[in-house]
Design brief:
Number of helices: 11
Order of helices and strands: HHHHHHHEEEHHHH
Number of strands: 3
Distance between the termini: 18 Å
Largest sheet: 3 strands, antiparallel
Shape: globular
Strand content: under 5%
Radius of gyration: 20 Å
Structural class: mainly alpha
Length: 286
């Protein structure tokens, strides 16, 4: 697989909506609508319990990496409008939008998957539609495959996280529960605390960077992706260990400002690694 196009230091051309709607931009917009609606329940819950200002600051409970990926898909979509929407494209677009507006999350998830797979299958390598397709498929990671993986293999995945945390704390582990460092109670490692979600975000950022800058996934860039996944995994384990060390600060570290700090650390660290990968790949593939 290649996402290559002429490599530069920044994506080609300014982002403009004045170029009209063609095939690439139509599928990008439809895919982003489906991705947003697949997370509508999460956004609604955030708005229900927080003020509009706080919800906006929290990006609607959606990771900045996901917002970046959706923007990148639309940005790429408006780069090249040389091919119009075909008859078969119209049918698929209508199906995607219909699925997206159905008030059931898995319908929008199916629409996103359909959009990405169809666009990938009907586009050629190194073109804007193919680059958009890989971003849309990557977005299905936390929305579909990560959730499915946790649903089917929740016990061993959560037990692995718990064992690593327990080993670092030096405390007893029972299934997916870890005894706090002060021996006063246990930490339950639930599915929202799993490392799977953060690792899937790293993959989205890695794919988005390659698609946005038109890079091939060569050996060194793949190693950067592995490093990004490892960083997200290690940081999540560090957060759980910190909770185990300071159970009195549970709320602060689990959902409060401490959790936000770990989130920003993950974003900044993964972003720096992605930047290193982009700069290196650009110099190699020029």
């Amino acid at each position: 697989m290649t996402l290559v196009r002429p490599v530069g230091v920044s994506p080609t051309g300014p982002f403009s909506l004045d170029r009209g709607i063609g095939r690439a931009s139509a599928f990008a917009c439809a895919g982003v609508i489906a991705a947003l609606n697949a997370q509508a329940g999460q956004i609604i819950n955030i708005l229900r319990y927080q003020s509009l200002a706080i919800s906006a600051a929290d990006l609607g409970g959606i990771s900045a990496i996901v917002w970046l990926a959706m923007f990148a898909a639309i940005k790429i979509g408006f780069e090249d409008e040389s091919r119009p929407v075909g008859r078969a494209d119209t049918v698929v677009l209508l199906a995607v939008v219909t699925l997206a507006i159905v008030p059931i999350s898995f319908a929008a998830q199916g629409g996103l998957l359909l959009c990405g797979l169809y666009l990938f299958a009907t586009s050629t390598s190194a073109t804007p539609p193919r680059r958009i397709a890989v971003i849309l498929i990557a977005l299905t990671g936390p929305l579909i495959w990560g959730r499915l993986l946790l649903h089917v293999f929740a016990a061993p995945i959560l037990a692995l996280d718990a064992r690593l945390v327990g080993a670092l704390l030096g405390t007893a582990v029972d299934g997916n529960t870890v005894r706090f460092a002060n021996e006063q109670g246990r930490l339950l490692v639930g599915t929202p605390c799993s490392s799977v979600h953060n690792m899937s975000l790293a993959i989205i950022l890695w794919v988005t960077a390659a698609a946005l800058f038109g890079l091939r996934a060569d050996k060194k860039y793949v190693l950067i992706g592995i490093a990004m996944i490892g960083w997200m995994f290690a940081l999540n384990i560090a957060r759980l260990v910190t909770i185990g060390l300071f159970p009195a600060r549970f709320d602060f570290l689990h959902v409060g400002a401490g959790a936000a700090l770990f989130g920003w650390a993950g974003l900044i660290g993964a972003g720096c690694l992605a930047a290193i990968g982009v700069v290196g790949a650009a110099s190699r593939q020029r």
